[in-house]
Amino acid sequence: MIRMDHATTPSLRTRKVSLSWSTRSTDTTNNFKLTIPDIELSAGDTLLLKGSSGSGKTTILTALAGLMGKIEGKIAVNGTDLYALSGPKRDAYRANLIGVVFQQLNLIPYLTPIANVLLPFTFQRTAGFSDQDLEKRAFDVTSRLGVNRSEMLKQSSSDLSVGQQQRIAIARAVITRPAIVLADEPTAALDDLNRDAFLDLLFETAEGEGAILVMSSHDPAVAERFSQTLDLNRIQTGLEGMV
Ligand SMILES: Nc1ncnc2c1ncn2[C@@H]1O[C@H](COP(=O)(O)OP(=O)(O)OP(=O)(O)O)[C@@H](O)[C@H]1O
Ligand SMILES: [Mg+2]
């Protein structure tokens, strides 16, 4: 059940985390293993995961979303050890505390923009909120992002401009008031101007909602915006990766 309250101040802490993917073959030399420096973030903090292709950016985001089978070490969100939770509890954690922005936005074209924003609520019941409450919140968030009511009610999300679709994707990621917003290379397909405008919106929205933002990118131009950077190329070469 989704609870849209901030009972606790958002926090994300990792301790001695190692993530690995194993191939099915008995030859383990190609297994991917990544040990990450401890992360400590709270509301308003922003972390950039940077590194070349294959360095493990998506793997870390997958782990933070609670989607790895198991991990070594500990990831605690709002003080709760994520991988100590049973499957259904971890699913509930994801629905409640995590918002996601994908590179391809992943809006559903046969749903209206408002239905796309409300999508996270269709998988989980919401505690104490009527459909009207949820709709009102969706219109509030999107109007702050500059998308008006009539645009929100267009028949298909693909009737919107790409910039508007990006706003819808950001609104969908924060609609449940998550503790953490995860974004995997959300700017990879954008030119410099659109990238900067998109990041302005993403940062403002995450901050306005009191969320922690963790984003991956291999674009060095974005690094200065973040309060912390984890450089995965440096970790792989054995250097201290946290900047
Ligand atoms: N589901 C999976 N099963 C097995 N191995 C995987 C899986 N996902 C990723 N890997 C491996 O983990 C390593 C890191 O991949 P990851 O996708 O995290 O890199 P990335 O930094 O996100 O790269 P990119 O910039 O190309 O998106 C790669 O060697 C990849 O082959
Ligand atoms: Mg990736």
Strand content: 15-25%
What is the rounded distance between the termini?
A: 37 Å
Largest sheet, if any?
Answer: 5 strands, antiparallel
CATH class of the domain at 43-58 and 88-236: Alpha Beta
What binds here, in terms of ligands, is:
adenosine-5'-triphosphate, magnesium ion
Share of helical residues: 25-40%
* Number of separate strands: 10
Determine the mean pLDDT. Answer: 90
Shape: globular
Give the SSE order as H and E letters. Answer: EEEEHEEHEHHHHEHEEH
Characteristic terms for this protein:
binds adenosine-5'-triphosphate; 10 strands; 243 residues; alpha/beta; five-stranded parallel β-sheet; Rossmann fold
How would you sum up this structure in a few lines?
The chain is α/β, with parallel strands linked by helices and 243 residues long. Helices cover 34% and strands 21% of the residues. The N and C termini lie far apart (37 Å).
Report on the architecture of this protein:
By secondary structure, this protein is of the alpha/beta class. It has a domain of 165 residues: P-loop containing nucleotide triphosphate hydrolases (Rossmann fold), CATH 3.40.50. It is built from 8 helices and 10 strands. Strand 8, helix 7 and strand 9 form a beta-alpha-beta unit. The N and C termini lie far apart (37 Å). Bound molecules: adenosine-5'-triphosphate and magnesium ion. The site of adenosine-5'-triphosphate (ATP) has 11 residues, from helix 1.
